[in-house]
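User: Hey, quick favor. My workstation is busy. Could you predict this chain's structure for me?
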Amino acid sequence: MRYGRSAAPTPDSAPASKGVRSGRRRAQFGWRGRLLAVGVAALALPLTTAVVIPTVATATPVTHSVHRTPPGGYQELMVPSAMGPVKVQVQWAKRGGNAALLLLDGLRARDDRNAWSFETNAQQMFGNDNVTLVMPVGGQSSWYSDWESPSNTNGQKFTYKWETFLTQELPNFLANYGVSHSNWAVAGLSMSGPASLRLAAFHRDQFKYAASFSGPLNWNAPGMREAIRVMMLDAGRFNCDSMAAPWSPQWLRSDPMVFAPQLRGLPMFISAGSGIPDQRDNVSSPAGIFNTGTAMGLETIAMISSHAFQARLDSLGIPAAYDFPATGTHIWLNWQDELAKARLGILSALHA
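Assistant: No problem, here it is.
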């Protein structure tokens, strides 16, 4: 069993019902003791997230701006990019507003569906709000960054350019549908937690709010790079060095502890559970007990990492909203709850 695999989505294009979804929400865990041991040594990394298949989705791109559903409706777009066409799931703002919330996936992002759309109730949560949900598909092990070269350990045929896509190609495309270039929020879990903060830090003209749930927020902690290397090899055989050379400017640029000063004045939400299980965890079978044990360890590391980042922001006099629940392990139900807690802040920052 491999850690971080999402449940398969329903065939229907709409989100699964709560009853059906609840049986599939829990991520499956793996990486066994070797990866958890590396992460614990780093004391800062939630080795994480849901979803499995690599690369960008392929299909016939939408070449003209057509709202095929009314305001509040759901639509799937194929957006041209330097990486090839990228599938993007969209739920349009309820009253035709220009605000957007970018929901980023986890380390094992699959190429058919963004896990926020079927592992959580995010679409229902924002269904009556005047904000467009934007859920890009793909990007396994990408950290949503612009890589230096294609991965040379898995035969990747193109270079990941996710930051360019999310900050240039995608907003330019959605502008044709009435989405503003300059009224976005971004939220992510685990792999996409630091990515959310990085995108907002370096693209303040686009993002007005950022949230990180269980994110590894200290990339230069002892053992961190090798922990990330192991994770990426396990999730699609991607080479960490192809993303950024060791301790290069590109690597340092990805570390929230380094770019933290650039977050000044940005509304933020930072959260992680305590690692203590509760009623949301499955301990009804040997597999469930094993998975919950893994989730406990990973979320404990996430909590330490997020507290370290809080101390860094405090030292700079930069405020943020924090949530460190007394219970909570590394599962989608907890990230769904954290998104709900961030919702009002998101809507306020976007005037939505």
